[in-house]
Specification:
Belongs to the UPF0749 family. Pfam families: DUF881. Keywords: Membrane, Transmembrane, Transmembrane helix. This is DUF881 domain-containing protein. The longest helix has 46 residues. The chain is built from nine helices and ten strands. It is α+β, with helices and mostly antiparallel strands. It is elongated. Helix 6 runs antiparallel to helix 8 and helix 7 packs across helix 8. The protein folds into two domains: 137 residues, no CATH class; 123 residues, 2-Layer Sandwich (Alpha-Beta Plaits), CATH 3.30.70.
Amino acid sequence: MNRRHSEPGPRRAADASMTLINETYRRPLDPGYQEVADRRRAGTAPRRTVRGGAALLVLAVALGAFATSAATALRRPPPAVLEARALLETEIRERIDRAELLRDANALLAAEVTGLQTAAASSEDPALLAQLQQDAVPGGRVPVVGPGLQIVLTDWVPGPGEQENPDNRVQDVDLQLLANGLWAAGAEAIAINGARLTSTTAIRSAGAAVLVDLRPLGSPYTVEAIGDAAGLQTGLARGVAGQRLASLRQQFRIGVEVTPEKDLELPAAGSATLRSARVLGDAGATGTVPDPTARSTAGAAARGSAADALGPVLRDVAVSSGPDGGERS
């Protein structure tokens, strides 16, 4: 008789491969903890002394302080990063100061050029000078003073426990709609945080910053418009801009303050850039190719005509008519 026909051995338990799980069910407490529990139940466990409790408290405080310092050290940027950031901040401040100095120098040179152009235009072509004076205010070439409307938009500031939301900040499209609404309501001149708006002014965003002709602005945004204050308020309320302001105030919690002002002073915009020019009355300026031999003569005439066309007003500050039709200097 071979092994196949021999007597079978003892049967193996069905859950023999589940010994660890069975032990966990039968003895849920670790043997060491079970021994301590039995000692406490029998009253033979050593009692905790004051010295041992104090030592345990000191150990817990030391571990907590170590964990806190380790977490702080991990969150703190390396010294090299801090130095690089400080260097960049210093360079940014220096560049901003430099830009302000250049802007002031540019304003002085523009005023000098304005005086020369005024003197030339007043003697050569008084009619052209009068036309330039009339177009100087809408073109933003001169500062203006007069009654109008002041609108201040302020970003919502989150309180304690509140999260910051980019939608609760004033965006470029808000200023665009507001400026267009003021123009449609009859504004004669508009400025945002001292930046005069013209027909070529660009209002756009770069990240979280709002740029007006590449000049970064920040909250609060003060929009000043010269004109009839009552008419401007009525025009805003009836148009899309008024609905936008109400939505910013109610839905996005952006501060909106509309105040009529008796005297507003808006600065002039930067000097205009000549992009194209032609000789007045030249029949060949309709698209025909000019004669290369006459390039120097035509160029000199175009430059002279452009200098006359960009001539400024006689006064340093333009006037804006008030609600009663009178002029305000």
